[in-house]
Design goal:
Number of strands: 12
Bound molecules: guanosine-5'-triphosphate, potassium ion, magnesium ion
Oligomer: single chain
Binding site for GTP: 227-232, 246-252, 271-274, 345-347
Subunit structure: Homodimer. Heterotetramer of two MnmE and two MnmG subunits.
Shape: flat
Pfam families: MMR_HSR1, MnmE_helical, TrmE_N
Domain TrmE-type G: 217-364
Binding site for (6S)-5-formyl-5,6,7,8-tetrahydrofolate: 23, 80, 120, 439
Length: 439
């Protein structure tokens, strides 16, 4: 795809900075480089040049790189100017560049958009690039880097090829059923393979839970009666005073969240209002929020004050796993010993490492139980579920060849939408490639 306008943007981070990278992409790129730097450098070879203003003055000295299309990020001619990262120098360079006819400021994501439209990346890869830029934990980085490499798109394309092949077989059976050189009863084999594919897509979709944990975090909700030490535990895990702690029951009334990087995994810890019956209006709302949040969590830490008397009924968190924890281990126990899975003291720090290890272990287990390639967006999952819906119909209605062919077409289309390549030409290629139609 050829765009008539060229785009320019600061591609590196916030200014001021040691170095700033300004990128240009589009048909004016060569002219812009020659005019500003005085020469067009060899492709992909860095040259150090004086960058000239319109009146011949100096904007800055910097490195100039030229990536001729199609072997560039966007597929177009691309220039990179590496200059000093001062606000005024960068803005002078941007002013100079956008003053060229046909050159304008890029919109958000426009370089990547051009890369996609020029076939340099598929849609999951562009999404993975966004994830890679936003990655904060090691697990997020690894996940995004794998997808940026195109693993997800390759999987969907392989499924799509199977569907295109299946439909070609069915269509051939419809169109050429009376001819000798079309294999008979291929519909059975096709239907069997579609059954297998349904299983593969289903288990891939299940992996979305793991992808969500990697991207959005493993959520741990702290529950327990008032004064069990919930806020004290949150503060100890966060290593700062995030939550207010007093000896008054009912101190915490709303949800309070901190995020941690536990062994490279993103973990969110939520402090809640203490659960009790006799609560005022505000506290009661807080208790309701605590329960709701706990039902959506990946893990509940149920705290029991070992020095106190209260015990709490864990009912109402659904199927969320619960870790029973005895708190205030530094105090004299009340004698009502319960079998806790862990005991700790927020005051002395005893047991905290064991707790964070246990949380990290559980989070890791959930992430590692999924396959290597996971759907990374709700968009993917929704289209995969549509694909499954059409595939199930294709299998159920295999007696009606034309319905089956239509369901396979719709399923292929949905997979094509995930990667951003919906194309009818390849269907014809398969048909003509498999059978000697022109006899
Ligand atoms: N000795 C000792 N006291 C603790 C420990 N953890 C919490 N406390 C005390 O217990 C009291 C209640 O602590 P909080 O952390 O506010 O308890 P909470 O569960 O958040 O209470 P609510 O928000 O009211 O439900 C405070 O006086 C804390 O100082 C501990 O490990 N050892
Ligand atoms: K309290
Ligand atoms: Mg509290």
């Amino acid at each position: 795809m050829i765009f008539s306008d060229s785009i320019v943007a600061l591609s590196s981070g916030r200014l001021p900075a040691g170095v700033a990278v300004v990128r240009v992409s589009g048909p004016e790129t060569r002219f812009v480089i020659e005019t500003i730097a005085g020469i067009l450098p060899e492709p992909r070879v860095a040259v150090f040049r004086r960058l000239r203003d319109a009146d011949g003055g100096t904007i800055d000295h910097g490195i100039v790189l030229f990536f001729p299309g199609p072997n560039s990020f966007t597929g177009e001619d691309v220039a990179e100017f590496q200059v000093h990262g001062g606000k005024a120098s960068v803005s002078a360079l941007l002013d100079r560049l956008t003053a060229f006819e046909g050159v304008r400021h890029a919109e958000a994501g426009e370089f990547t958009r051009r890369a996609f439209l020029n076939g340099k990346l598929d849609l999951p890869q562009t999404e993975a690039l966004a994830d890679l830029i936003n990655a904060e934990t090691e697990a997020q980085r690894r996940f995004a880097a794998g997808n940026a490499d195109g693993a997800q798109g390759r999987l969907y394309q392989s499924w799509r090829k199977r569907l295109i092949h299946a439909r070609a077989m069915i269509e051939a059976e419809i169109d050429f059923a009376d001819e000798d050189d079309v294999p008979g009863s291929v519909a059975d084999a096709v239907t069997a393979d579609m059954g297998i594919l349904i299983g593969e897509i289903e288990s891939h979709v299940e992996g979305f839970r793991a992808a969500e944990i990697i991207r959005d975090g493993f959520e741990v909700v702290i529950l327990g009666p008032p004064n069990a030490g919930k806020s004290s535990l949150l503060n100890a895990l966060a290593r700062r005073d995030v939550a207010i702690v007093t000896d008054e029951p009912g101190t915490t009334r709303d949800l309070l969240e901190v995020s941690l990087d536990l062994n490279g995994l993103y973990v969110r810890i939520v402090d809640t209002a203490g659960l009790r019956e006799a609560a005022g209006a505000v506290e009661a709302i807080g208790i309701e929020r605590a329960k709701t949040r706990a039902r959506d969590a990946h893990l509940v830490l149920l705290l029991h004050d070992m020095a106190g008397a209260d015990q709490i009924d864990p009912a109402g968190v659904g199927s969320v796993p619960i870790l029973h924890i005895g708190t205030k281990a530094d105090l004299e126990p009340s004698g009502r010993d319960k079998p806790y899975e862990l005991v700790l003291s927020a005051r002395t720090g005893a047991g905290l490492t064991e707790l964070t290890d246990e949380i990290a272990r559980r989070a890791k287990a959930q992430v590692e139980s999924a396959g290597d390639i996971l759907p990374s967006r709700l968009r993917h999952v929704e289209l995969l579920r549509d694909t499954l819906g059409f595939l199930r119909q294709a299998v159920e209605r295999y007696e009606e060849r034309d319905v089956q062919a239509e369901m396979l077409r719709l399923a292929t289309d949905r997979l094509g939408r995930i990667v951003g390549a919906v194309d009818v030409e390849d269907l014809l290629d398969v048909i003509f490639g498999q059978f000697c139609i022109g006899k």
